[in-house]
Task: structure prediction
Amino acid sequence: MKQENATVIEHHNFQGDYRILHFAAPTVGPLVQPGQFLELQVPQLGDRILRRPFSIYKADAESVSILYKPVGRGTESMRLLNVGDAVNIIGPLGNGYPELSEGKTPVLVAGGYGNAALYLKAKELPVQGVAFFGGRSALDILCIDEFKALGWDVRVTTNDGSLGTEGLVTDAFDPWLTEQNTDVELFVCGPNPMLKAMGDRAIEHGFTAWLSLDENMACGVGACLTCVIKRKTADGWEWARCCKDGPIFESREIIWED
Ligand SMILES: Cc1cc2nc3c(=O)[nH]c(=O)nc-3n(C[C@H](O)[C@H](O)[C@H](O)COP(=O)(O)OP(=O)(O)OC[C@H]3O[C@@H](n4cnc5c(N)ncnc54)[C@H](O)[C@@H]3O)c2cc1C
Ligand code: FES
Result:
């Protein structure tokens, strides 16, 4: 984990409300593993306001990108960032997705900005499988051409039917799963109800699912305990910090709370 004043080198609309922020980040960029995130200090909010967490969409030796959607005070203020502005970032944070297990077929499942969080994993995996992407409408289905270009078989569902099949991501995944003879391993990122739905299926059908939990975070480095969840242990449960012990957990580790 490093801290760096990263200079904005690109900032533009991507699709619908989503925007891309690309930083020169020669300190953080080379360290990034798929599924990790960074904590960004929004300059317009001043230095006493909590940082905001964002999955790392792309990274290389010189730079990092995030794909974000303005939803509140911090992310709305980020719209004001201009090329040349310096933004303090801490990263890469979190555990990242593990390696694919020997002999398994990888399956990606994502919704909204979860697609961005899975892009580096999709690029790194030694084999390509099926990618199930869901969203409210066509504008929430991100980067599908990039996943297709990497060789993924992309299946889209939208709640309003404006792209792909109408319904939830599970409406496409369930019939597909019943036809499989292969041993699948899932890499999932999206809203918690989607994560739980995929985790339940993993437990029921006996496959592994790596779920990237979306919990509110404050410090992002394991100190404040804002982001704790209950994790199963051999004799009960323990608190686990999503920012430090996660955000990625195997489905069987998580105790879901209402
Ligand atoms: C590990 C991780 C990775 C993330 N990656 C991305 C990403 O790649 N792109 C992206 O657009 N967003 C991502 N988020 C969500 C992003 O951090 C929040 O949207 C942001 O912190 C909201 O800040 P704000 O000040 O604009 O909103 P606030 O004014 O703080 O809140 C506005 C609304 O956003 C909700 N919100 C606040 N924090 C979160 C959160 N952590 N997750 C979900 N909803 C939240 C609040 O409940 C509220 O309804 C990620 C969150 C986590 C934990
Ligand atoms: S956000 Fe502070 S411990 Fe996780």
